[in-house]
Fold:
Amino acid sequence: MSLLPGGVSVSHLRVYDWPAPDGVGRAGSGSPHLHTASAEAYVLLGGTGAVHTLGPDGFVEHRLAAGDVVRFDPGVVHRAVNDGDLEVLVVMGNAGLPEAGDAVLTFPPDVLADPAAYRAAALLPGPGASDDELAAAARRRRDLALEGYAELLDDVRRLGPAQALRPLHEAAARLVRPYVPHWQDRWTRTVLHETDGTARALEGLVRGAAGHLASARVREARPDPAPRRYGMCGRLQTWPLG
Structure:
């Protein structure tokens, strides 16, 4: 299956029901993080909860009702808050980049400043790890992100969002920089390729040409049969990207 229309990816998220150290969320919460190049949207499917964001407007709580959509641009810190059985359809721009590392967790500044320490804190155990081991590592990662998030939230309230978020944004850029050439290649072969195809189709249609319609295809995909993986904010069911 090729990329979904518009070069997006989707996943079905069940937000973690682990109680958060700061007591936010009656049922728990996800890990606060931001994306460096890709926009993201949550479509609420069921349950109750909210998304907490830190961005140009400071701290904002976005309460969610069935069918609501909340979008975050790159750079906005977001945290899913679970008040009970919160399930979300996650729509990600630039399908493939988020999966390739376009997310930075709000770890404490000393961890963000050390790429090796960041990788050690962010990566989950590899093949062969039990589900209990994966869950424990994901929970430790979430709690460390919440530790840094608490400091960041205090700075946003004390200094204002622009000044408080700047060090995080700069640290995020440093952390992902080694991966950007790979991202550029992937984006060119996928999202840009699709965008260019639309541009060519429009150029043809304005001349009355419809040759591209003859090569139309139908594609389908099934959810990944593997157990739901441990994502930033919860357990994820995914579909193949390509």
The two ends are 5 Å apart (CA to CA). The chain has a mean pLDDT of 95.
